[in-house]
Design brief:
mainly alpha; about 90 residues; about 0% strand; globular; Arc Repressor Mutant, subunit A
């Protein structure tokens, strides 16, 4: 993984410069999304390997992908078709 934290994870990040709030829930979701996308990118989109890399079960990763609106997205983060998710 290239970076451990997304650019807006701390007070010096872009989100604070553009007037974002300190809403904990939205920050946690953003960080979770960042880690999941980084793991998927590192594994070439292989969700089983990404789950292993993240230390979670594949079913947990699938639930998180769905909740975060990432299900079926290719590793580069561009929107994809929901039926194209790899297992």
């Amino acid at each position: 993984m290239a970076t451990l934290f997304p650019p807006d994870a701390f007070t010096g990040g872009a989100a604070f410069e553009s007037g974002a709030t300190l809403d904990l829930r939205s920050r946690i979701l953003a960080y979770e999304r960042h880690l999941i996308t980084a793991a998927l990118a590192e594994t070439g989109g292989n969700q089983r390997r990404a789950a292993r890399l993240l230390g979670i079960l594949p079913t947990t990763l699938h639930e998180k992908l769905k909740r975060l609106g990432l299900r079926g997205s290719p590793p580069d983060g561009t929107p994809g078709n929901p039926g194209e998710a790899s297992a």
